[in-house]
Structures are given as C-alpha cells and as structure tokens.
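As a warm-up, study this chain.
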Amino acid sequence: MSALLEPLRTALALADAGVPVLPLRVGKAPFGNCPACAGNACGGRPNMKTAGPCRCPGVCHAWAAATTDPDVLTSPPWSAAWRRAACVAYHPGAAGLTVVDLDDAAAVDWARATLPATLTVPTTRGEHWLYRGAMSSHNAVRPGVDLKSTMAYARYLGPGTGTMTDLPDTVRALAVKKPPTVRPAPQAVTMPARVGGGECPHRTPAYLARGIAMAEQRITAARSAVHATVYRTFLAVLSTHGRCGCLTETHITRLFTAAQAKGESLRHCTDAWTNARTTLGL
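Now compare it with the structure written out below.
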C-alpha cells in the first residue's frame, strides 16, 4: 500500500480492534460538511462537533462520524477522504477509553506526580495518557490538561508504552467543577407576545409546568446520543412555547441544568438552543 494510503491502513487496524476512527485533514481538523449538511441544513452543529439528528453516511461530523465498519471506511465518500487525510483520529469514549491530553512539559510533570501510571503516548508537545473507562469530555480542567472521551476525538499517535489501567477517580474528579452560572443563549429569551394580544394560554401553570417537566425527564432519561436528545427537546419546547412569550429564564435554566447533568457543557447547551431557534425562525 502506498504511503498516501498509510492512514487508511492504520485506521483499518484500529477498527478491527474495535476502535471507531475517522480521518483528519492537515492541521488536525476534521473534514468539512457535505453539501447536504452545509450551513447546518441537517440539524447538526456548524463546527462539526456533533451530528445532532443527522444520519449522513459521510465524514461530516467529526467524532460522531467515527466508525469501525471496514466497508464504510473503504467506500466513497470515505475512501476519497483517506486519500487526502494527514492522520487518523479516534473516538475514545466509543472505545471505552479516556485520554488525558497533556499539552506541555509542566502538565506531564503534574501527571507523573499525581495520576496512576498507565499507557502513555508521546505527542508533539506533551503526552496522551490512556485509561480504560469512558467519561464526559472536558477541556482545560487544569493548565495544559484536557480530557477526551465521549463526544470528542483524539489523534492516533502510535501504540504507546506501558500498560493501560482503569480510569481512576483522580481523573474523574478533574471534571467535577463548581456548578457554572447557567445562562440562556445570547439572544433575548423573552419571546414576543402573540399577534392579537390577550393572555397566552401557555401561561396556565399546570400546562407549562408539565411541559417543562416532561422535557427535563426526556433529557435525564437519555442513555445515548445525549446532544441529539437535548437538541430535539429544545426544538420541541420552542415549537410549543417559543412564540407566545411564556418561557422565562427560570424555565430555560431548568432545561440547561438537566442537560449539563448529562455531561453537556454550557456552550453545547447554548449552541443547541440557538440552533433550535434558528430552525424555527425565532
């Protein structure tokens, strides 16, 4: 196999071991959206971090597109992407892994003094420490340290050295932060009154309270595709209550809090809310 297809050969080996993979372009960036998904037309995220409700068979949505299926990896449009790929990435969470991404020498020194030994892989500026076990992904948990697991991708940089160990509570604790102040999307959350005036029927306490409670329950019950569930739930709430002015910051805060309890970041919540508003033309 030519050097041009070396990333594909590596990807197939990883996929055979049960690790979902995807190609990255020069600059360690995922491939852009296909025409059907361009401009967020598919309901996914513009920055390709998640696929949302999209079911595109292509390489459009970074970690959400990662696969272990060799037929997918070697067929169009994936085959064309591999010919242009600079390197291979994988979705750690889907493989049951967590990567502690140490971005500089100071972070590596901290890890060696603090974390249990495990499989390590050298990077350009630091190291990846791989643990057996998945968790939510978090950036900048401390200076020079990111956690990459679910809803994230990491570059594959080789087999590494050492023996992989179980994900310790020490790493999980890095993601436990003081609860952030939950803010709604940048747009004003108070919707315009209905044309014609009069009291909004959704202001009926029982009706509105039941709708928000059901939305919270739907998010809390999600066992997979959490971001897609959050987006669809926000879309449903806004389609019912978004034009009549009955939603308050308190209601939105409850929805954001439920999503954050499932591992969504405030940024993910804000993006999902904004995308739902845009879809509905609010």
